[in-house]
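User: Fold this; tokens only.

Assistant: Input:
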Amino acid sequence: MRWILIIVGVPFGVFCLFVFLNWLTKKTNKWTREEVATAIEDFVEGRGKPWDWDDFTSCPIADEELERARIQCLRVQQDYPTGAIGWCNEEGIEVLRKLARDLRSEKAS
């Protein structure tokens, strides 16, 4: 009987932890346009810390428009396969640069 509780309880506990962390991340990840643009530029230029890009691409953003930009960054990896920096090719790098510029220019508008 004890092993049944372990078999059911452990996956359920992991699932609950995942749901809680996902909820917590959505509630607290309130990036600004400037922060998103900087994260993209830092990645493209190789200025970011080792886990910055992973943190940016892995955590949903509360603002819907900025969340779409984050998702677009993830799609670049699929649409423009691996290149010089290991994420995408040069065309993909240009897409990321343009996205960062667009985020900044819309802020100025």
